[in-house]
Amino acid sequence: MYRARLERDFKHWVDKGLLQENAARAMLAEYDGRESTFRAGRVLLILAALLLSASILLLVAANWEALPRLARVAGIIALVWGFHFAAAWLTQTGRTTLAAAALVLGAAAFGGGIALIGQMYHLSGDAADAALLWFAGAVLSALAFRSAAMAAVAGGLAWFYFATVLKDDGFNGAADWRMWSVPALAVIVVLLVRFTSADRVRHLAYLLVLSWLAWLYLDNASLAFSIGLAALGLVAFLAATLPGSPLRALAIDAGSAPAFYSFALALLGFTTLQYEAEGLTTEVLTGAGTLLVALLGIALAGAQNGAVRYLGYVAFAGELLYLAFETLGSMLGTSGFFLISGLVVAGIAWIVIRIEGHLANARRTEAPQ
Amino acid sequence: MTKSEQKSRWLNPLLAALLVAGVQTAALGYMIEGRASILRSGRDVLLKTVPVDPRDLLRGDYVILNYDISRLQPELFKGDTPREQEQAQVYVRLEKQLDGFWAATEASFQPLASAGDSVVLRSLPFAYYPSSSSSSVDVEYGIERFYVPEGEGRTLEEARNAQALSVNIRVDAKGKAQIREIAVNGSPVYEEPLY
């Protein structure tokens, strides 16, 4: 995607005489040489490893009686050792993608072992602890091999743990540490991401925290909690994007994620506030607040951060439609509602065009510096 | 994005493999031994059950087992009960009845001392909501599932319909239970080896 756009732009600039052709070729070559660049073969290899992992897990699940239990345990432990030493050998010979695939398979074998023992001894009521143990095994592997692929697996297993807790019983009546374990896992994943430079995996951790907060709200809806969410999101977003904030440089260094996710958190908070609001005046006031936050997001970070810009547009448009539906739709009837919606969307389009133009101007004046 | 070039190995890959495989094997071994030790040295208890039949994606087919002792009547409880909603555990004293099956004779939110021929079983932690009227308490003991080879849940289901299923468990000194054997009409169908 980015590669194709880059090539097209280079061609455009070379044609215009802005860029030397050999410089463009050198830049593309540098890009292709990066480790994080998409390669079909690499992706297919990891997909194959995931399929093989599923086959290990399902082989365990089938509880196949042709193999005695002890042989099954021995087999799965042999797989754990085999895959990890294969990964070590492949790393040493420089075949890193194959090594990553072997590590993924090793993690699957460890998970299969946990499931197998649960099956052997008919364990019940401990699925979340089993998921946590599996996650710990994956973290150890990611650390020891400094593997980005294993950081991704750990991120996925953190989600698996969250899902298992929700499927069991939720946090209702569970011990306090269970509730806090989810953000703790997210922090561990972020640290792994930094350690292994698995940049894209960080989104798994951020999304996990957002979903956890949303779940906590659904589980325990209260006005104070939604105010807290909105305030926390706003403060974090301002700290990440306000010019002059001491954290701004750090946030920009971490890419577009800090601004985007704090913005998403603020909008999540305002959505829950909207849900809490009762009565027309409060509804409209909360709605106006949400619109302001959306505009603030676009104004502060929209120029550098496409993700924030689009989330801002979506929130702005959604909130306007919601307000139109709540206040006018009930009075004017269906036809009137569509009329209003049409006008509202046209109004949004006008604002978006103005903002885009303004941002383009801002970028043009910034560029020569 | 170019951080990957600075990234360096900090551990020899062979050492890393040894560490990861070793620790993971130890974790699996610890899980196995924790269970095998209950089977080896726990006390025998025979329970009556009522199963149904779902499936767990990761571990395969299993039969849900429900016991007479899964629902504790209010008159069994001795000692204080929690006044607020909390994470609670219940200790249940089991005694052998004339028909050979064991039944709950006492329950408490505090640990019970073992006395005479009785066995004390500990429930899994659960969310306890106090109610004004005394009502029965539903608990689990971690023995509510029995995994069977794919497709073999039927046999146990039919036995359930005939109300002929019994489960032999072993309970260790800490009150932890482990299924040892499932029997239909008194004759064992699945006997669990130590390992």
Folded structure, characterized:
The complex is a heterodimer of chains A (369) and B (195). With 369 residues, chain A is an all-alpha fold. Chain A is 83% helix and 0% strand. Among the domains of chain A are: 1-34; 221-369, no CATH class. In chain A, helix 1 runs antiparallel to helix 2, helix 4 packs antiparallel against helix 5 and helix 12 crosses helix 14. The termini of chain B are far apart. Chain B is an alpha+beta fold and 195 residues long. The longest helix of chain B has 29 residues, at 13-41. In chain B, strands 1, 2, 3, 11, 12, 13 and 14 form a seven-stranded antiparallel sheet that branches. In chain B, strands 7-6-8 form a three-stranded antiparallel sheet, with no helix packed on it.
**How many structurally independent domains of chain B?**
1
Q: Report the radius of gyration of chain A as a whole number of Å.
A: 25 Å
Strand coverage percent of chain B: 35-45%
Structural class of chain B: alpha+beta
Q: Give me the Rg of chain B, rounded.
A: 22 Å
Greatest interface: A-B, 58 and 57 residues
Helical percentage of chain B: 10-25%
Low-pLDDT regions of chain A = none
In what range is the share of β-strand residues of chain A? under 5%
The chain-level mean pLDDT of chain B equals: 82
